[in-house]
Each structure stands twice: as structure tokens, then as C-alpha cells.
Design goal:
The protein is α+β, with helices and mostly antiparallel strands. 35% of the residues lie in helices and 20% in strands. Strands 2-3-1-4 form a four-stranded antiparallel β-sheet. Helix 1 crosses helix 3. It is elongated and about 55 Å long.
Length: 153
């Protein structure tokens, strides 16, 4: 495991909260020289702790009001083909291979329950290799900003 220090975690914490903030603003918040913060960010990217800077979209404002998780079981011999098919569905946001009664949990965002039904029954359910699905509609979502700590010595 790569070595990171408290300054790295402070920079990371602030960027996770808002990666659009300028380096001078960030350096002022954490009380460190701008050039030091800039070089730390470059180093964190180079060491692949920061993999990319991105935008978090409020999909509800674009009409994606329904969020669901679909438990998917697949024929083990057709696993890769099923994953490939899931990747091609625009409404699929995330595919997680899991332990338990499902092979995958698939996060889906749609504009309506009717559209969700179509995605699950006409797209996911008909993929080559998919043997069973079970849908869990999200009643309420709460996102947390993660916090990170250095490992205890």
C-alpha cells in the first residue's frame, strides 16, 4: 500500500467535497502554501489515489426521478456476455458483482416506473445469460461525502 500523510488526506477530503474549487481557495482552507497543494494534487493523481475529476449531476432535474437496484442472476457460462449487455443499456449507472443471492446488483435510473418496467423486462431480463431479476425501487437516497483515515500503525 502506498504511503499517504495527513496533508494528502486533507487535500483529498476537500476535493471530494468540491473538486471545482481553485487551488488557491483550497490552500487557504487547509492553511498550506498554494504551490505545495498544487504539487500534492499532481502527486495524488500520479500515484492514482485520485483517478479523475468529475461532475456530479442532479439527474432529477433532467427527469430521472426513479432510481432502482436490480438483482440479476446469470448463467455462469454467459456471464461476460450479460455484463457486456448491461453496459450497453444507457439507464444503467453501475454494475456490481456481489456475494449473496444475486450475481450482480445493477443501479438503474429512469424517468418513470413504466420506463423502469420496460428496462427490466425488455432489456435486462432478455439479455443472453440472464436467468432471473428482482427489482428494488429506491424510496429515498442519501449521499454521504466519504471521510478517510490513515491506517493505524
Amino acid at each position: 500500500m502506498a504511503k499517504f500523510d495527513e496533508l494528502d488526506l486533507n487535500v483529498l477530503h476537500e476535493l471530494v467535497r468540491d473538486s471545482s474549487q481553485s487551488v488557491p481557495k483550497l490552500s487557504k482552507k487547509i492553511g498550506v502554501n498554494t504551490s505545495v497543494v498544487y504539487s500534492r494534487i499532481k502527486r495524488l493523481v500520479k500515484r492514482k489515489l485520485i483517478q479523475r475529476f468529475t461532475v456530479e449531476v442532479n439527474e432529477e432535474l433532467l427527469g430521472y426521478a426513479v432510481s432502482a437496484f436490480v438483482g440479476v442472476n446469470v448463467d455462469a457460462k454467459k456471464r461476460d456476455k450479460a455484463i457486456e449487455g448491461l453496459r450497453e443499456i444507457p439507464e444503467v449507472r453501475e454494475i456490481c458483482e456481489v456475494t449473496g443471492r444475486f450475481d450482480f446488483l445493477v443501479h438503474v435510473k429512469t424517468r418513470s416506473l413504466e420506463q423502469l418496467h420496460g428496462i427490466v423486462s425488455e432489456k435486462i431480463g432478455l439479455l443472453d445469460g440472464v436467468t432471473h431479476t428482482e427489482t428494488f425501487i429506491t424510496m429515498k437516497e442519501e449521499r454521504r461525502i466519504p471521510t478517510y483515515e490513515l491506517p493505524k500503525s
